[in-house]
Amino acid sequence: MRKYRGFLIGLAMGGMLMTALPSMAATQKTTYTLTEASYEVEVNGAAYFDPELPVLNYKGNTYVPLRSVGDLLGANVAWDAAQRKVVIQSNGEHLCNDAFCNVKVSGSGGQYTVTGEARVFEAVMNYAVEDGHDYVLEDFHMLDEGAPAWSPFTLELDIPPDKLPDNGTLMLELFEYSAKDGSKINVISVPLETFAP
């Protein structure tokens, strides 16, 4: 019996390793090595530059953050938390989600008029303007009616000259706060203006 004891222990250990290794391998993710691109990306005459989120290259392919590309193209890039997916809408005249629709922007140099329709809880829509790093304006707007009705809105935004970015895109976020947990929901990001040095 002693003669077979070592053999049985070895067989048991081998069996455990054979079942553990494939499951360990399945949980490992592939690692990619990207390098900062030595060239610039230009879209419609505007160069993309962000030292915190640089253009990257992997095997001859260029990688730029989705939101940054959306900003340069005037497209809306939003995270749909409910469905756990990124949503890109390229037609700037019809930016829509469950709470905001037909959002349009006019103006320049810090003076913007934003129009559209909203259906938000208790008729309170919130908005913020960010320069790519920080919020330069945060406020709310009362609609004529709350959800489920759609209500038209007009926002007159006045951003002081010292708050405008030297390089980058000024973005407007429209959103509402969840009645359930107070988190931002139905966020829609709208480019106001792209600035270049």
Automatic annotation (TrEMBL):
All residue ranges annotated as the Bacterial spore germination immunoglobulin-like domain in the record: 110-183
InterPro entries, per database record: Cu_amine_oxidase-like_N (IPR012854), Gmad2_Ig-like_dom (IPR018911), Mao_N_sf (IPR036582)
Domain Copper amine oxidase-like N-terminal span(s) in chain numbering: 28-88
Key words of the record: Signal
Domain of life per record: Bacteria
Signal peptide: 1-25
Any Pfam family the entry gives: Cu_amine_oxidN1
Name of the protein in its database record: Stalk domain-containing protein
Organism of derivation: Paenibacillus soyae
